[in-house]
Amino acid sequence: MRREIEQAVALLAKKDEHSIEEALELLQGTVFSFSMKVCGQREDAEDTMQEVLVKSLPHLPRFDSPRALLVWLYRVAKNRCLMSRRRSKFAPKQDLSLDQLMPDKLERELLAKEGPATPESQAIRSEQGRRLREAVQKLPPQYRIILVLRDMEGLADDEVAEITGLKSGNVRVRLHRARLFVRKELAQQDSAQRAANRAAGQPRKKVDLDESTRRPASCKAMFAELSNYLDEQLDDSMCENLERHIDGCQPCQVFLAQLQSTIDQLRTAQDDKPRTALAAKLRRELFATLSEVRTLTIR
């Protein structure tokens, strides 16, 4: 749970104008950050933030549970963001299949060649804040919502399920496929960068294929469980089977490291901030209705 939500509930409990203003500033940042990650466009995120908070103001004094406020805010913001995406003719609608996200023969060969991450490859990833945002925006909305809530906003599976109306099992499936999609996008960007480096004169390393690069069936058997493994949600016997396979499969070792790196990047992505002028404008509009809040708190 975001610490800002807990702070906002504590401030709202004081029921004075100054505390409500502080709480609104915290909620404003939370809603805007979430909306930017989902909508991708600052204008849409600003509209969402404004609409959500204006609608929320009369109800805020009734919340004494951080979890209840968190679920309610994200649910309202999620619905507003999805409506915005549906209005766009560019909004993607496709589903993601595990087969599409499984590395093909060429990518497995590249994974076998790459080996563990090097300082040079880490340097390539150092400017991937922009790339990460672009990859997340390419996700179909039903997957992007799950990824943003779970990995970027730090919510638990049951909270994501309550916000989205999905079963926890479906949350896990969509989360894993969303992570795989983003990993694939980032890997393709890195491959393009390496190709550009080769074109500039850097030699290409020879790929030495061994038996571990020619076992897609056994790799696929473990593929659907990688997120559960990294999130420590597998039982002991499945963990042992997966680790036994990975120990003998270099492409899978590299793939798993890339997936973990992608999750780490998602979890440490910087929050976007609303523009100062817009924030001030929003506070003026919110406090134009503050008398209604006072009336509600007296009842």
In short:
By secondary structure, the chain is mainly α. It has 17 helices and no strands.
Compute the average pLDDT. 81
Q: By helix and strand content, what is the structural category?
A: mainly alpha
What is the multimeric organization of the chains shown?
single chain
Residues in helix, %? over 70%
Radius of gyration: 22 Å
State the domain count: 2
The helix count comes to 17
Low-confidence stretches: 206-214
- Described by the principal axes of the CA atoms, the overall outline is elongated
Ends distance = 30 Å
Helix-strand topology string: HHHHHHHHHHHHHHHHH
**What is the number of beta strands?**
0
Largest sheet: none
- Give the percentage of residues in beta strands: under 5%
